[in-house]
Amino acid sequence: MEELVVHENGSGNHGVPRKKPKLSKKKNQSLSEIVRQEFAHHDPNFARLNNGSFGCCPATVLADLRRWHYQFLSQPDRFYHGPLQDGIRRSREAIASLVNASHPDEIALVDNVTTAAAIVLHHIARSFSDGTFPKGDSVIMLHYAYGAVKQSVHAYCGQAGANIVEVEMPFPLTSNEEIISSFRKALEEAKSGGRKVRLAVIDHITSMPSVVIPVKQLTEICREEGVDRVFIDGAHSIGNIDIDLQAIGADFYTSNLHKWFFCPPSVAFLYAKKSASADAHHLVVTHEYGKGLAVESSWVGNRDYSAQLVIPTIIEFLKQFDGGLEEIKRLNHEKVVAMGKMLAEAWGTGLGTSPELSSSMIMVGLPAGLKIRSDKDAMRLRAHLRVNFEVEVPIYHVKDLINVDGKDCENPVTGYARISHQIYNTLSDYQKLRDAINKLVEDSITCEKLEKNSDLVLQVSPTTL
Fold it and tell me: I need a labelling partner for 193 at 20 to 30 A (CA). Which of 258, 276, 308, 451 fits?
């Protein structure tokens, strides 16, 4: 498999440094060499094929995290009145440059995308509550939207009087045209009866199943159709695919930095276009209230802000690699597609999306013999792979595949594995998953049999996707 080349290696020092950690001058190291040092804290026994849920953090960045935390604890007053705000400003400026925001003041740092979504949806719900938006007007979101975000749409906007419409999409998916057609159909429903669409919530990469959504085209459609606000949930996006906020044209955009951008948990950015967010506020009200969302988010009470301060160090870490983050994204995509095809061939199945609709994650069909018939079956299989084979991979159950066009399918694929690729992954990780699934099929182990195994305790929740 093709490798990146690094020119400087990060320190593997796990102590609390007194000075900012520096990158050493070891030239022409291979990807495997730098990964071995930077990710030595990973459990070597596990095949981690789920970077999409919790991400990863290099040792160099962890050392900087501890440096910031130690600085805070050593003299909190001095830290608050100087390094904290300066550090957050530098982080916001770095993110604004990476995602092409028009100004750093449009970038706020928050805990995670779930928090960012709550801020945006609370903002929209107030417009329904105060009569700015008539009750009964619509909010539209993808059927495959992340569960917590879907719940928030109903909790904030639905309870404030919005009509909630979901975009039903097929799966497997092979083209953007299928997505665009489904979106237009849902927009028609949302506008029926003279309603106006006040908000569209669109994923940039859906979580389960994982699909790259053509957000620029869908945003353009929203503008043509008179949708008031567009909010892009890019939880999996930064460090995974390209983000150009000015080209996309949405009013709000959020992405987790701890998934694919090597940040420690947890931190996300929330972009709020100035013209659309004058009355948007952080949900935690402090003495910074009314100074703009970016400033309000920079202080939400006494807590550890260290994860928000290491972003410049991550950018320096990425400079070690030929081609930087762009090359990492390219290779992650290339390798996950290759591994997905290898697994599909080994299992006699196929991919859930075309490579063009995949990022550094891809959906791989699982053998029909596993008999994945429900979400509980999918979680049970995932737990079994973790406990018995030391493989961590999310499993997706596809509903309504038993009957297609009125005809029963023969041996339908009802379950998919969502595999990720990050720079620490190796071929052996995917071979371990391949062999585990083949062993289950060879031994005629089905999800029904796993359910009857009282020794297996479910240890997974859909909230960790």
Answer: 276
* pLDDT tens-digit readout, 19-36: 444 444 355 667 678 888
> d(Cα 274, Cα 103) in Å, to the nearest integer?
9
The DSSP call for residue 153 is: I
**What's the pLDDT score for residue 451?**
84
Tokens coding 25: 């001058």
Q: What is the pLDDT of residue 113?
A: 97
Reported for 164-167, long-range contacts at CB under 8 A and 24+ positions apart, including other chains, are 164/138, 164/139, 164/140, 165/138, 165/139, 165/140, 165/141, 165/189, 165/190, 166/140, 166/141, 166/142, 167/140, 167/141, 167/142, 167/143
What is the reported pTM?
A: 0.90
CA distance 308 to 264: 9
Rounded to the nearest 10 degrees, how much is the dihedral formed by the CA atoms of 170, 143, 119, 249?
30
Q: List the beta strands (DSSP E) in 328-431.
A: 361-365, 391-392, 395-397, 403-404, 407-408, 415-420
Share of the chain above pLDDT 90, in %: 83
Distance between CA 52 and CA 248 in Å, rounded? 23
Which residue do the tokens 């796990």 mark?
Answer: 14
Query: Of 81, 19, 67, 37, which Cα lies nearest the Cα of 310?
Result: 67
pLDDT tens digits for range 344-359: 999 999 999 999 999 9
Q: Which residues contact 337 (CB under 8 A, 6 or more apart)?
A: 355, 358, 362
The pLDDT score that the predictor gives to residue 464 is 54
pLDDT at site 182: 97
CA angle 448, 408, 184 (to 5 degrees): 100
Enumerate the β-bridge partners of residue 256: 268
